[in-house]
Design goal:
The structure holds 2 protein chains of 2 kinds.
Chain A lengths: L10 H19 L3 H19 L2 E4 L3
Chain B lengths: L2 H13 L5 E5 H7 L9 E6 L3 H13 L4 E2 L2 E4 L2 E7 L4 H8 L2 E5 L2 E5 L2 H11 L2 H11 L4 H11 L6 H11 L1
Parallel strand pairs in B: 2-5
Antiparallel strand pairs in B: 1-2, 3-4, 4-5, 6-7
Helix pairs in contact in B: 5-6, 5-7
The chains are: A mainly alpha, B alpha+beta.
Amino acid sequence: MTNTSYTKDTKGFWQTREKARSTLDKKRASASLTEKERILENLRADAAFLKSGRMVSAKS
Amino acid sequence: MGLKEVLTQLNNLKATGIIQDYAICGGYAAMFYDIPMATYDLDVLVVLPTENDYHRLYEYFRSQGAKIENVYIFIEDMPVQFLPNYISPLFNSAIEEANTVDFQSVSSKFVSIEYLIALYLTAFRKKDRVRVQNLLKKANKNLLVDIIRRFDNDEHKLYERYKRVLADA
């Protein structure tokens, strides 16, 4: 990892991502009520799963 | 199907050498540190030596029949965004210094709270500033300032942004 050569111009990279995120947000906002409920349910399940995590090595 | 299956798939990508390493960041990392967050996508920092390896990652998922929309690869119905380490030395260190976390029968890596804050300072949208405020309550400030100073640059002005967030608190 120490020999990584980094991209000089990352502006395009971030612009593409911001655009994609905005598209995804709009899609979620216009989803049906049933779909929104499903997303919320998944999010609750993921939050419960994350709570079950135990940190086994903390580097910082 | 849920996050556990997604993490298992990420571990498989690492085991098969498609990615060299990874660490969860973004909203899901914030949720792990008990910060309430409404997030729809999973942000994953990945170690990939070159841009070609990044394209190969997409090719792999395409060959598996995965749904791909813009930069998002859908794993188990979850939109996943891969952020390659060659974009920023901050990404690289965030992965190297990530915390290993054990869940029910699956392990994963999550960026530390301090790196998560530094990543949000890089993006620095309105919602990121709110997230930084919340995460600061749990962060080691000395460590955070050390990270900020190490990765500060003219493009992202991390220290200046950090001071702005503190002033708004």
